[in-house]
């Protein structure tokens, strides 16, 4: 497949050991666990696709590389260009940027965590604005979300005028309840910044350190996602279950699927009706396959 020319590429971080979901993840990579009716990885990938990004780099564990390749291949069946890099061990989120350097080159990047699920009216419009802003003006753009348990996340602190004054990774005493969600938009400087990050007390290259450097340079923008948005970090048993129940409720109510990558590829004009039919045929006895066949008949 010919290389797609565009200004932004996406990195989807799908490595890590999934210890918070043990013992399930001793058997299968957490990103292939079903969140209701689709593998977890479909949800962040679908956001990337809805943003119109066709060039994707998956960062995966050595033992999971073949599973990812078997499932997604080179991306051509979705009209995309998918590559893979291996993360030998979970050395932190910022390492994903460094590992993907050869694919990113001079491109800006949308960096998404493979266990994060986003939903909400206008979420794509808001993220497209972030994408376009980074493509035109550079810098970094992230999103904050109000949580009850901020000590689990990277936390952002604001002054009374809404300006960001600090970022902290998994603080014992959080300075706010705003967590930075797992989708980040960066200019091409991100890789060089990540390379200079020193391991934290946890021994990891923290993505918060990358964001802090952009903050120091006065190049970080943080937008808060309000009440109309749902965000799940599906890396714990409870949040994983919550995410599945949420997706099930929305899909039953609307009759529309969240995170259906074949549908998005088709509606984006990346694959033809015939290609969608080919993808749907082997699944025709499943609810997922029937849904795709209905789209073909539209």
TrEMBL record:
- Domain named Nucleotidyl transferase: which ranges? 9-248
Q: Name one GO molecular function term.
A: glucose-1-phosphate thymidylyltransferase activity
Annotated protein name in UniProt: Glucose-1-phosphate thymidylyltransferase
- Cleaved signal peptide residues: none
Gene3D superfamilies associated with the record: Spore Coat Polysaccharide Biosynthesis Protein SpsA, Chain A
InterPro entries cross-referenced by the UniProt entry = G1P_thy_trans_s, NTP_transferase_dom, Nucleotide-diphossugar_trans
Annotated family:
Belongs to the glucose-1-phosphate thymidylyltransferase family.
Q: Catalysed reaction per UniProt? A: dTTP + alpha-D-glucose 1-phosphate + H(+) = dTDP-alpha-D-glucose + diphosphate
> What EC numbers are recorded for this enzyme?
2.7.7.24
> Keywords, A to Z?
Magnesium, Metal-binding, Nucleotidyltransferase, Transferase
What is the recorded function of this protein according to its Swiss-Prot or TrEMBL entry?
Catalyzes the formation of dTDP-glucose, from dTTP and glucose 1-phosphate, as well as its pyrophosphorolysis.
Q: Which superkingdom heads the taxonomic lineage of this protein's source? A: Bacteria
> Per its Swiss-Prot or TrEMBL entry, what cofactor is needed?
Mg(2+)
Q: What SUPFAM superfamilies does the record point to?
A: Nucleotide-diphospho-sugar transferases (SSF53448)
